[in-house]
Amino acid sequence: MKVGDHVVYLQDGSKGIIMEIHGNLYHIIWEDHFSSWENGERLKIQEAYS
Question: pTM for the full model?
Fold first, then answer.
């Protein structure tokens, strides 16, 4: 995963974009404009942008 990738949070299906990466922590801006730092294991690349 890299900055700018669209991702999905595995627990609830929320979608966001990676803004920063520090090791295995990813700073995500979510579709509701909330931002958070998440572990890479909880994210997957979004297959089809919609």
Answer: 0.88
| Three-class secondary structure of residue 40 per DSSP | helix
* pLDDT greater than 60 at residue 8: yes
**40 phi, psi to nearest 5 deg:** -60, -30
Assign 49 to helix, strand or coil: coil
Reported as a single tens digit per residue, the pLDDT across 27-41 is 999 999 999 999 999
Q: Where are the beta strands (DSSP E) in the chain?
A: 6-9, 15-22, 25-30, 35-39, 43-45
Could you give all domains of the chain from N- to C-terminal order, each with its CATH number? 6-45 (2.30.30)
User: How many C-beta atoms lie closer than 10 Å to residue 16's C-beta?
Assistant: 24
Place of tokens 């909330």: 34
